[in-house]
TrEMBL record:
This protein's name: MucB/RseB C-terminal domain-containing protein
Cellular localisation: Periplasm
Entry keyword annotation includes Signal: yes
Signal sequence, renumbered to the chain: 1-24
Membrane is among the record's keywords: no
Pfam family, one: MucB_RseB
Domain MucB/RseB N-terminal intervals: 35-208
Organism: Undibacterium curvum
Entry superkingdom: Bacteria
Amino acid sequence: MSGRRLYTAANLVLLCTLSSSVFATENAEDKREIQHVLRKIQASAQKMNYSGTFVYQQASQIRTSRITHYLDSAGETEKLEILDGKPREYIRRNDEVSCYLPDSKTIQVEKDVSQESFPALLTQNAQYLPDFYTIRKGEMSRVAGLECQTYSLEPKDGFRYGYRLCAEKSSGLMLRAQTVNPKNEVIEQIAFTQLQVNEIDKNKLRPSFPNVSQWRIENLTVQSNIHSGWVVKALPAGFTKTKELKRVIPSPASTSNASSAGNAGSASANATANKTAKSHQVIQMMFSDGLAAMSVFIEPYSEGRTEGSLQQGAMTIMGKRQGEYWLTVVGEVPVSAIRQVMNSIELKTNK
């Protein structure tokens, strides 16, 4: 869920067996209905004011965070506080995110960032999800003391996982998202344990640390909306490129501090950091089917890297040398999707 995905209690009671109410996605009227539901889920995360604590569980790892979201005439402001491990905070103002790292008194700034983190997991092409998932409307449930409507998304191919979503019954705000494998086992989940809506204190959006005006600033985004010449020739059906940019991968020390809880995009970037001592620039291409996300990172090859793949929960990471370059593909998708992307990355040269 990413990377892309910039954040995430695991509810101890998993969803009951969903009812057999199915949106017949081949039927135009039913397809419009589910598209309306998907738009409502995403719009509520962007337009509502809310503050809550949520837990993200990936395999054996559990991380707790607190998010505060506020919308006014100046746009969106969102603060994410990581409550486990080393203290750190992310504050997003529209499409710019500042990560506050108190240990090093550093602020890492990324520009041209889209809101694709919990509870705003759906992206702009979410209207096409019924083409690649069978979507079932399930029973009513409760998360963080609030009633919510459950939905299951069953993949129509082997290039994506299934999902179980629970959206607050009136507003549509996503309260819980679970990722399931082909055996219908939950391999990743993220859910609110406490949530307050509407009346939000704007002071909660400020950094919690003192004297941040004196901290060092690192700009991680070098160039946005680039066309590097690198292409993925065989994307799994439904995935489209949402962004391409040149960014800085921090040194391992900074990366460890800045590790994001549940954000696929940030997790993808962190996973590509090699064991060298210096920060370095990479090209990053991001892809999404409206819910599942993948990122491709391209950088100069350096000694000491080992080709192979790693899987944890829903996250798969694969690294490979290609000539003078090192390629990394990261995503919360099955290894089949990661492998197909990796094997079709090419650099198109102008002749």
